[in-house]
Amino acid sequence: MITTLDTVITICYIAFIVWLGFRAGMAGKKGGNAAGEYFLAGKSLRWPVIGMALFATNISCLHLVSLAQSGFDTGLITGNYEWMSAFTLILLALFFVPFYIRSGIATLPDFLERRYNRACRDWLAIVSVVSAVVIHIAFSFLAGGIVLETLFGINMFTSIIVIAIITGAYTIMGGLRAVVVTESVQTIVLLAGAVIITVLSWWKVGGWQPVLQVLQQEQGMEKLSMLHGSSDPSGLPWYAIFLGYPVIGIWYWCADQTIVQRVLGARDENHAKAGALFCGVIKMLPVFIFILPGLLAYVLYRQGQLDLSALKAADGVMHTKGIYSLMITQLVPPGLVGVLVAALLSGLMSQISGALNSIATLVSYDLYKRYRPEAADKQLVKIGRWAAGIALVLSLALLPLLNRYESLFHGINDVISHIAPPITCVFLLGIFWRKASAKSAQYTLWLGSALGAGVYAVGKLMPGGFISQVPPLMIAFYLFVACAVCQVALSFLFPVQDAAGSERLYWKSPLEPLRLKGWPGLADYRVQSVLLLSVMAILYWCFR
């Protein structure tokens, strides 16, 4: 039950975040209305802020809602999306960060132009804007609307519009500094709220032994395993995870402007690397504080301690999208409910604000400035703000279409699996293979994107066909292989033409980036990477 106290706590939190965002944005303007300050926070960010901002931009209300749903439905298996991200964040720190920081780029399309050509830059800019609108904003709005409608009885679209106005206000006015400052606070609130619901669920269940008893009685012990066989009904067999996730993970963490923009705002290369690795450490937590509560809710339901009648539709079918909201209303005492709602809003607002700032940067630097190279900083900032506002409107228009997915988490990963392969391919070959040519990358981006869109359309138009039966992660892998074959073949057909300074745009060997100087002792990025890899290996062994 939502009390007046909970409502007041929620409103006060929103007001605080808006005030903090505007204050941070205004503080950044003391040095002038420079585009570098607005889009990249004057390249002044330190590693703790970068790590928390990366995590906050990744984790949204969508994750809290959908990961709890997946925990209830299939157990811990979806946690692979969280733990596998640690490996791609290590790749970001070791192999991608040095290129990005040393070249002084403002956007990732800018990097593609330097490595390949202008056509690659334009295409990635367009795809990045579209993916930010769909993946980072529209899906997050949808999850937030469902939660607020369930908790407060507010019409979903009304609540979404209000959130859009509030988040858009401080993001559009304050730029990246406002985004990362508010994200740092919201990460703490989000984690605190997730820990609260986990502890309360654990206490209500009665510890680990009752969980094992319920799962053993129902032959559901596989719900505790992170690695399933080929017959896994959730569509996440172990080989799909290890073959398909790197494809979408490298795009998301290493080549997506919305995520990488926090790294581009680092004060130096070591802070950028440490921030990425710190985020990899934090990414261990979602399995235990986002997915495990959903599994505990399943146990509580089987014990008769959680009433799910509110989730049943008129046809008697149970729709578990609202399981997290139901846990809040039935397990959390008054007062703390407001904190949990604030945590949900934290994830929602941080995801949206980060995406809006990246859209503003992409449109200003990669699209507008191309046709107006003499544009002043003030004009670039103005165009960026208009772009962010238009993106909000477009994302709202997409909501009815995206709401057709039964599982929001499945929906977002389904979309990513068709977008990521060509981008991952041209980035990987671009930094590791000298012979990757501009024409080959250009045609691979075009053909790969067209192929991904075609496969997606066929899968949706023929729901009972072969393509619809293939797990999204395997589709990502197959598309990546096709793109890699395409780019390698085209690189021989259209040989690379080395230009002055081109040798600085790819690694001569995979060991080259590991020889770069880092901080001393345990702060060295190589030592931290090995430690993170070791911990992840232990976790996978324990939950194999």
Topology:
Blueprint: H1 4-28, H2 35-40, H3 47-58, H4 61-74, H5 80-103, H6 108-115, H7 118-152, H8 156-205, H9 208-217, H10 238-254, H11 257-264, H12 269-282, H13 286-303, H14 323-331, H15 336-371, H16 377-402, H17 408-432, H18 438-461, H19 466-469, H20 472-493, H21 525-542
Helix pairs in contact: 1-8, 1-15, 3-8, 3-11, 3-12, 3-15, 4-7, 4-13, 4-15, 5-10, 5-12, 5-21, 6-7, 7-8, 7-15, 7-16, 7-17, 7-18, 8-13, 8-15, 8-16, 9-13, 10-17, 10-20, 11-15, 12-21, 15-16, 17-18, 17-20, 18-20
CATH second-level architecture: Up-down Bundle
The CATH class, by name, is Mainly Alpha
Number of distinct beta strands:
0
| Beta-strand residue percentage | under 5%
How does the overall form come out from the CA principal axes? globular
Rg for CA atoms:
23 Å
The major beta sheet can be summarized as: none
Helix content: over 70%
Main location: membrane
GO cellular component, one term: plasma membrane
Transmembrane segments: 6-26, 47-68, 83-102, 123-148, 154-173, 185-203, 236-255, 276-301, 336-363, 383-403, 415-433, 445-463, 475-496
GO molecular function, one term: D-glucose:sodium symporter activity
Characterise the protein shown here.
The chain has 544 residues and is mostly helical. The chain has a single domain (4-25, 45-404), classed as Up-down Bundle (Sodium/glucose cotransporter), CATH 1.20.1730. It has 21 helices and no strands. It has helices at 4-28, 35-40, 47-58, 61-74, 80-103, 108-115, 118-152, 156-205, 208-217, 238-254, 257-264, 269-282, 286-303, 323-331, 336-371, 377-402, 408-432, 438-461, 466-469, 472-493, 525-542. It comes from Chitinophaga eiseniae.
